[in-house]
Amino acid sequence: MAEVNANPEPPQNMTIYINNLNEKIKIDELKKSLHAVFSQFGKILEVLAFKTLKHKGQAWVIFEDVTSASNALRHASSPSPTLIEQNRKMFFLEG
């Protein structure tokens, strides 16, 4: 019988999701800050963040390749106490 992983990780892809971001920071400033922090791991195609109630405190960073996104997840510590609230989570976007 095949062994089932109770907590399967989503497959790696080019997009990482970050939540618990500081909602008081203006969207343009948040995007620039996230780009500055995560660009050390590879070329970023886009940073998505919105001010709608449903999407507050969340962002998606889309890298040019999977390796860059993997490195960002593996090596990024909390980008900044100003940007990140407690219990920040980062993971690959399923899809």
Automatic annotation (TrEMBL):
<dbReference type="GO" id="GO:1990904">
    <property type="term" value="C:ribonucleoprotein complex"/>
</dbReference>
<dbReference type="InterPro" id="IPR035979">
    <property type="entry name" value="RBD_domain_sf"/>
</dbReference>
<feature type="domain" description="RRM">
    <location>
        <begin position="14"/>
        <end position="95"/>
    </location>
</feature>
<dbReference type="GO" id="GO:0003723">
    <property type="term" value="F:RNA binding"/>
</dbReference>
<keyword id="KW-0687">Ribonucleoprotein</keyword>
<protein>
    <submittedName>
        <fullName>U1 small nuclear A-like ribonucleoprotein</fullName>
    </submittedName>
</protein>
<dbReference type="Pfam" id="PF00076">
    <property type="entry name" value="RRM_1"/>
</dbReference>
<dbReference type="InterPro" id="IPR012677">
    <property type="entry name" value="Nucleotide-bd_a/b_plait_sf"/>
</dbReference>
<dbReference type="InterPro" id="IPR000504">
    <property type="entry name" value="RRM_dom"/>
</dbReference>
<keyword id="KW-0694">RNA-binding</keyword>
